[in-house]
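Help wanted!
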Amino acid sequence: MNRKLIAAFAAASVLGAGAAHAEITVGVTLGATGPGASLGIHYKNAFQLVPKTLGGEPVKYIILEDGSDPTNAGKNARKLITEDKVDAVMGSNGVPSSIQIAQVAFEAKTPYLCLTPISLPPEKYHWTFVVPQTTELMMSAVAEHMKAHGVKTVGYIGFSDAWGDLVYKAMTQLAPDYGYKVVTDERYARPDTSVTGQVLKILAAKPDVVVVGGSGTGGALPHVALRERGYKGTIYHNHGTVNAEVIKVGGKDVEGAIAPTGPLIVPEELPADFPTKAISLEFTKRYEDTFGAGKRNAFAGYSYDGVLILNAAVPAALKKAKPGTPEFRAALRDALENVKNVVGTHGVYNMTPTDHNGEDARARVLVRVDNGAWHLLK
Amino acid sequence: MTADIVAWLAQDGITNGAIYALLALALLLVFAVTRVIFVPQGEFIAYAALSLALMESGRVPGTVYILLGGGALAAAMEIARAVREHALSRLPRILALYVLLPVVIAAIVWWAVPRKLDQWLQILLVLAMVVPLGPIMYRIAYQPLASASVLVLFIVSMAVHYVLMGLSLVFFGGEGLRSRPFSDAHFKVGMLDVSAQSLWVVFASMVLIGALWLLFERSIYGKALRATAVNRIGARLVGIPANLMGQLSFLLASFIGAVSGILISPITTIYYDTGFIIGLKGFIGAILGGMASYPLAAAGALAVGLLESFSSFWASAYKESIVFTLIIPVLAWLSLRSRHVEEEDE
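Answered by r_m:
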């Protein structure tokens, strides 16, 4: 054994020992209360199931509650970074909250794994990595399905908030490529007791299909109202609507609803060679074992995938610096930008400097409500 | 815009307006008797609607825990007062009212839930759970401060609202629920297709408004409520107990809220926080009526329902803004008119 090799061994063992002491800290802010609670609860639940090590190192998760309030989310992010010296932040369950956190992460130079599909000016993406599929990616599955069925006109009704805007924007951006026209832009709020006016306006425009830009059980109200008024066309939803509760609320009326979603909603029905099948199936099973049958949802998967992406990036960063230092955060950011083929519950992530989401068509499937449950649309 | 669209929108507006009218009356009643701006009014809607939906799916609604806990807290406060005033003879009554009654109601609910009773019996149980929350709430939060200023009482209302909304999220969860309609029937009226449920809403609202009118005109309690509303000190001088009147007005408010919740829960998805926005629209209705006259408040609430319905057709993204903007001209008009009254106060 020559000297060089011994020195390398010694260095490696010292480095290894040093790294073993270093605990990685991940700061999380989520809103399990407030208007976004129905999503936030799931996001938060997932942190009971995440790995206890990242890249082989022990990890501590500090989870703060922001009440679905963007100001609180921003404050929490700042507190996590300055007081708890976290190595990365994750959160939150609303687009406005996530935009706030992205701003804080940008200023404080800390990697941020964003758990909602936000869009930022390109330079602001430097520290931000968006886990969920972009709305365009998701809605392109809907657009493909509409094109295959010769749809020419689309009626739109969505939430009167950022989510409603995002889905509308995606539908209008995809329109020229898929040969349809969006003929209405109606809006409603989740606690509204009636959408009669909006539905009448859509019926007057006689669209071939309708796209609903709501989320959770909020997607049921316009769907039911359209059916009650005798609308016969297909009604599409978005990935925010896919859960069991919306079927409970909508009952018979939501039969036949089509929506894009991540593969973890229907892992049992995926073809055997689907890249995420194993991990989607495992996560869904663990989640339902812990939180009850039928509780599967996309949101918990985003939290989980965020942690998996970190897990893939941490080893490269550990080679450069110790956790808890600005150098480690910078190294982690660089490593996150280069993770390849991270198989998550939602899809396969391949980050690049210009693509901080890294998902492709493998991250979406279409599902339809048949006999009171969401099933893979083949 | 064709005639049938106008008819559709009008029908929708009247259905919602009927609910807002009920809430406007309850808010006005509570304000007149206790000077409380009753922000948590909407919570009764959510509690009743969600409790009903949960019972229908065979689960014990968390409302029973809120009832038991609230009752115990109120009993503790009453007992502390009785001990302080050396009036231990009040104890049996206190225990019966704040402890025994909630326990009995809770026991019946636990017994009834797995048996999936008839819908009407479930509705009665929901009323039994939600309505006592009104007087209990008054006892805990408002009675100790009954003579405070309107502003202090308003701040208490905000606090109570947040506490109840938080409890609601804990017990009912973040997703919305919907209960079964009383009947699936639809009637063809001309070109309109009227659902039996919306007729139920309008019919029940009219019956309730009529019953309230009878209460105020014919019963001794109703007259005592009116007397307290006109002049609190005068009412006390002639022997009307102010605390009892406060509890009575809260009882009526929680009853009206619970009935509203039960009526609309089959029409729409109710979330743990839906009640607030519905209550707020009732409040706009009451303000449109000048916060003084019952018929004007009901008319104001109906106008809110219609405006909401028509603006959701024309400019759905701005619907709430349009509805809430309504109060600015009304408040401006009211404050212009009432200037000399304020001077008198000072």
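OP: Thanks! One thing I noticed: Chain B has one domain: 3-345.
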